[in-house]
Amino acid sequence: MHVFQQKPLTQWLQSHPLLNPIIAHQELCWFNPKLRQFAEIVETLPLGTADIRDAADRLQRFAPYIVQAFPDTAENGGLIESPLVKIPTVQQALEALYGLSLPGSLMLKCDSHLPISGSIKARGGIYEVLKHAETLALDAGLLSLDDDYRVLATPACRDFFAEHSIVVGSTGNLGLSIGIMGAQLGFKVCVHMSADARQWKKDLLKSKGVIVVEHPDDYSKAVEQGRLEAQQTPRCHFIDDENSQDLFLGYSVAAQRLQQQLNQQGVIVDAEHPLFVYLPCGVGGGPGGVAFGLKQIFGDDVHCFFAEPTHSPCMLVGMYTGLHDQVSVQELGIDNKTCADGLAVGRPSAFVGRLMTPLLDGIYTLEDDSLYRLLALLKDSEDIALEPSALAGLPGMVKLLSEVGQPYLVQKGLADKLDQATHIAWATGGNMVPEQERSDYYATGKALLSALKA
Ligand SMILES: *Cc1c(COP(=O)(O)O)cnc(C)c1O
């Protein structure tokens, strides 16, 4: 595991100079030199459209069950989906805040308002629980593929699931999604929570009968402990956020849903109308899955960026050095402490960075104070309340259109297409944050905003 330490830090700093500002916790933008034309590499990818379609079909099979178990999904026919909204007033507020003109159109993808668990984890996390339940029930002869999946709510199925357990390690939101869905089906669920996890998330899970194990350490440790427990427990499924292809594919289904929403709203995406998407990144599965799905649909016309806290830039460090999960931010002396609890991850996924190497346009980092300011700005201009992690995508357009983005825009031939471009900030969570916590976040952001103006 200690590949990074085989070379002294001074040598790393020479061969990879961007590590200097990274270690100094400076906000920065990295443009991926290994990005390739999609057509050139599509055949080399280990996953593709057939895998994503399989995941989408599975979610469709579960739709009747989901409507019955979670009636607020009825308006989307049992699909767990969120609105895509234009936010021109926010765009203007960003122009004022950063003193920059922002051509093109800014939209918000409101995964903060996904039903069931109020974060992007309601895509991947819930998908993996459903897939596991389906596999078990099919094997046990309790279900067949063309059944009405509401059969899964019958006592026979629930009693069966009660003999099985699901374990996961989480900074909070993944545990929430898996706990709520798992408990609903009847599974025994155990969530190993990192120190960053908010108390209200733990309390909510306990109220659903989920076992919550609290760890004084960070996310990687919580995952490790969960993995250990699962190995020692019979009939136990471990949801491995650092490695899971199922989680990844669950997230990737978002792309075709987004394509439909863009179509419905008359938003064109083609070579003359580029699409830019900014995704908050923790371990990488969520943003990776969504970006991967988008590349399959839009190819070179979509440009995906990940956003990380300056104190938890694990994907940036992993992709920039090419070491991926063989390095942690702690090994660079970065503390992995951030108000963006959903992104407080020190070591990236074992496969997402590798898979995204030819597909991702870049990664930028943000200070906690920037996240708080944007939280207040979004609340004031559009009355949308998010959790700090979820704001990371919002200034992506600012980063790109400011000076640091110019060489990239010119090199990619995008500089003269910006008036027709669409930018989507992926708002990854926040709808379930309790009122008190929400107003504390807002007050912090407001104070930082007025300090800026003074
Ligand atoms: C988990 C999470 C992310 C990032 O997802 P990863 O799969 O960890 O990269 C972003 N925002 C919020 C609110 C999250 O909970």
Q: How does the SSE layout of this entry go?
A:
Layout: H1 9-15, H2 19-23, E1 29-31, H3 38-41, H4 49-69, E2 84-86, H5 88-98, E3 105-110, H6 121-139, H7 155-161, E4 165-170, H8 173-185, E5 188-193, H9 199-207, E6 211-214, H10 219-231, E7 236-239, H11 245-252, H12 254-264, E8 275-280, H13 285-298, E9 302-309, H14 314-321, H15 352-356, E10 362-366, H16 368-382, H17 396-401, H18 406-411, E11 422-427, H19 435-453
Parallel strand pairs: 3-11, 4-5, 4-7, 5-6, 8-9, 8-11, 9-10
Antiparallel strand pairs: 1-10, 2-3
The chain binds pyridoxal-5'-phosphate.
Pyridoxal-5'-phosphate binds at residues 119-121, 173, 280-287, 342-343, 345, 387, 389-390, 428-429.
Give me the CATH architecture of the largest domain, please. 3-Layer(aba) Sandwich
Percent in strands? 5-15%
Number of helices: 19
CATH class of the largest domain: Alpha Beta
How large, in whole angstroms, is the Cα Rg? Answer: 21 Å
The span between the termini is 48 Å
Low-confidence stretches: none
Q: Which topology of the largest domain does CATH recognise?
A: Rossmann fold
The helix-and-strand class reads alpha/beta
Oligomeric state: single chain
Q: What's the overall average pLDDT, rounded? A: 96
Biggest sheet, strands in spatial order? 1-10-9-8-11-3-2
**Any idea what the shape is?**
globular
**Beta strand count:** 11
**How many discrete structural domains?**
2
Enumerate the distinct ligands.
pyridoxal-5'-phosphate
The main sheet comes to: 7 strands, mixed
Question: SSE string, helix = H, strand = E?
Answer: HHEHHEHEHHEHEHEHEHHEHEHHEHHHEH
Provide the helix percentage. 40-55%
